[in-house]
Amino acid sequence: MPAHNARQVPKAANNGTPSFLSDKSAKVFLAGHKGMLGTAIHRRLAALGFTNIVGRTRAELDLTCEPAVHKFFDAEQPRYVILAAGKVGGLHASSAAPADFMTENLRITVNVLTAARRCGTVRKLLFLATSAVYPVDAPQPIPESALLTGPPAPGNEWFVVLRSSSMAAKILQERACIYTYGRATCNSI
Ligand SMILES: NC(=O)c1ccc[n+]([C@@H]2O[C@H](COP(=O)([O-])OP(=O)(O)OC[C@H]3O[C@@H](n4cnc5c(N)ncnc54)[C@H](OP(=O)(O)O)[C@@H]3O)[C@@H](O)[C@H]2O)c1
């Protein structure tokens, strides 16, 4: 999430709807809010003045469980979603059990993206990928268009497969969002 100076943020986006950073009372679902990234994002959003951040631990809401995720979105109806939840184990653990990591992370990604699209209230969704899915010689800052255009850094192959499966789901869901609602209604990054 880029650092923003709140005073420089425009009050409204071009189409008249408030920009994310000026929509501070809107409900934000921060998936993985107790994780390393999620904790930092939560702290930053609170410092920026966001007053309606919703989080659930895995014990409260298992994001691999599709019916539970849909029920949660139908009940909470968030306007923004930040997906910082995932099975994370480092290169060694993910190389030892790649199928477990891939299926669990793909389930989480597909369930959250699908529920966000279906519930109809989500205006913007941020999916946290990783720079490791991009080619080692991608331009900086890395554009999304660089995905799958070259080889990853040596040693990152398994990690790339794991994360790219989520990225592929993300790209498919983004297309589905645009085809179904149009970019203005449900926009994923
Ligand atoms: N850390 C980095 O530098 C970095 C860089 C780029 C991308 N990422 C990506 O960002 C995401 C978060 O990374 P992280 O380092 O913050 O990981 P982390 O500290 O392990 O946090 C992961 C979070 O996801 C939650 N979670 C996992 N499985 C879940 C499930 N089935 N249902 C609900 N919640 C679940 C965990 O909740 P519980 O604690 O309740 O299990 C935890 O809060 C990952 O997808 C990672 O690949 C991380």
| Number of alpha- plus pi-helical segments | 5
CATH-defined topology? Rossmann fold
β-strand number: 5
Which residues form runs of ≥5 with pLDDT under 50? 1-12
**Rg over alpha carbons:** 17 Å
Q: What string, H for helix and E for strand, traces the elements in order?
A: EHEHEHHEHE
- N/C terminus separation: 11 Å
Mean pLDDT metric: 82
Instruction: Please tell me what the overall shape is.
Output: globular
Q: Note the main sheet.
A: 5 strands, parallel
| CATH architecture identity | 3-Layer(aba) Sandwich
Please give the share of residues in helix: 40-55%
Can you list the strand order of the major beta sheet? 2-1-3-4-5
Explain how this protein is built.
It is globular, with a radius of gyration of 17 Å. The chain has one domain: Rossmann fold. A 5-stranded parallel sheet has the order 2-1-3-4-5, sandwiched between helices. The chain has helices at residues 36-48, 66-76, 90-96, 98-119, 157-181; strands at 28-31, 53-54, 80-83, 124-127, 187-188. The longest helix is centred in the C-terminal third of the chain and has 25 residues, at 157-181. The protein is α/β, with parallel strands linked by helices and 189 residues long. The protein is built from 5 helices and 5 strands. Helices cover 41% and strands 8% of the residues. It binds NADP nicotinamide-adenine-dinucleotide phosphate. NADP nicotinamide-adenine-dinucleotide phosphate (NAP) is lined by residues 32, 34-38, 57-58, 62-64, 84-88, 108, 128, 130.
